[in-house]
Amino acid sequence: MFLQRRLATSSAENATEQARKMVADALAEAERLRQDAMLKAKEDVYKAKKEADEEIKNRSAELKGEEKRFSQKLEQIERKIDLLDKREVDLLQKEKSFTQQEGDLAKRQKEIEALINEQRTKLENIAGITREEAQKRLVESIESEARMQAAKEVVRIENEMKLTADRKAKNILALAISRYAGEYVAEKTVSIVPLPNEEMKGRIIGREGRNIRAIEAATGIDIIIDDTPEAVILSGFNPVRREVARQAMERLIADGRIHPARIEEIVEKVGKEMENNLREAGEQATFDVGVHGMNHELIMLLGRLKYRTSYGQSVLLHSLEVAFLCGVMAAELGLDVKQAKRAGLLHDIGKAVDHEVEGSHAIIGRDLARKYGESPEVVHAIGAHHEDLEPESVLDILVQSADSLSGARPGARREMLESYVKRLEDLERLANGFKGVEKSFAIQAGREVRVIVDSSQVKDVETSMLGKDIAKKIEETMTYPGQIRVTVIRETRSVEYAK
Predict the structure, then answer these.
(1) Quick check: 413 and 186 in contact, CB under 8 A?
(2) Can you give the pTM of this predicted structure?
(3) Residue 280 CB neighbours (<10 A)
(4) E strands present in 61-182
(5) What domains can be seen in the chain, in order of their start residue?
(6) How confident is the model over 446-464, as pLDDT tens digits?
(7) Interacting residues of 377 by C-beta distance below 8 A, sequence separation 6+
(8) Among 278, 344, 352, 417, fewest CB within 10 Å belongs to which?
(9) Which helix (H) or strand (E) holds 453?
(10) 487 φ, ψ to 5°?
(11) Which residues pair with 442 in a beta bridge?
(12) What does the alpha-carbon distance between residue 296 and residue 278 come to, in Å, rounded to a whole number?
């Protein structure tokens, strides 16, 4: 028991000693760790302080550098300000000097202007002309030189274009004319009805003139019975009505029964036949040309052209001829042949009603073609074939050319002697009115006018411009079929005598 107690006491003492020793070791370790921590903290503080001192030193160096640069810039700015002040002073001095010089110049300019006016007055007195007259002469001289240069340029361009254009155009026109085999006979509407004897005049007049009044009322045509032997004259602006009256008169004369009832019957019958004839003539024209799908009213108007004449030429035959010529030229140029024929056939359609509607037949025809559904190209070609409208396409030019060709052929048209002579006189008078023209001659039935100019007043290069001016004046002031050629002739003669 004692041994057990002794062992327990010894174990407790040992445990206590061990615990005391462990506590002492722990305290020593804690002191060591505290010392290490303090040492490390001191090292970190020293290191941080050293880095802070280094950074402060660097920042101080940078600030000193910036301060130095700012000082330099400030010095530069101050120097520039001083320089600007000096320049401002110089500018003020120069401005003052310039103001003084400007006053001197203004004074001298007035003196110079006075001298110029004095010299101008002396020159005007010496030359005998005023300043305005001298300016006018100078302008005229410059204008003359400009016109001369323009004439040279025009001649050069025309010569270049004629090398190819004239040859091609002549070939096409010649081919078109050669391929079209048309009649050269001029037709006219007959307005005189022959009678078998003079007794027939009385029967046509009837008792108290009732027969002749019935004919005039039924046909709308004036019947003229005068001293013309065995003939009755029919007078009226409407060619279709005149033709109805002619046929009705011939049938009445052949039948012998002339009284109001019979007259009305014959006129009505002839009128119906005439409508059929007009339709057939129009259809035949479209068939001959190869134009299809045309409005019925246009076909009837084409038929009416059979009895419409222009300068003695049948307008329907003329339209057919223009259509064929347009087709041939369009084929040579690679254009739409059917469209060209259609425009050529309808180009004078306005003449079928021009005695009933106000305006030129070209504009009337254009409106009719548009009304009855023709294409815009054909409509414009109809309106432009006499330049009532400005040409816009090759088709317009083709119709103009074909129309001129058909009307200008020898024997195609007739005109009264008085109007023919008057046109020739007007041509010569118009040409003689230009400066430098000595005399002029209208030749080739008025298709050409030859102008002889004074070589001392008109130079070679000015002849082209003179020809253009004369042609333009003819276009503006005269009415004529086809075209008129203007030829300007200038020659220089040198005469010397041997003594």
Answers:
(1) yes
(2) 0.48
(3) 13
(4) none
(5) 416-489 (3.30.300.30)
(6) 778 889 888 888 888 788 8
(7) 339, 343, 393, 395
(8) 417
(9) strand 448-453
(10) -115, 120
(11) 449
(12) 11
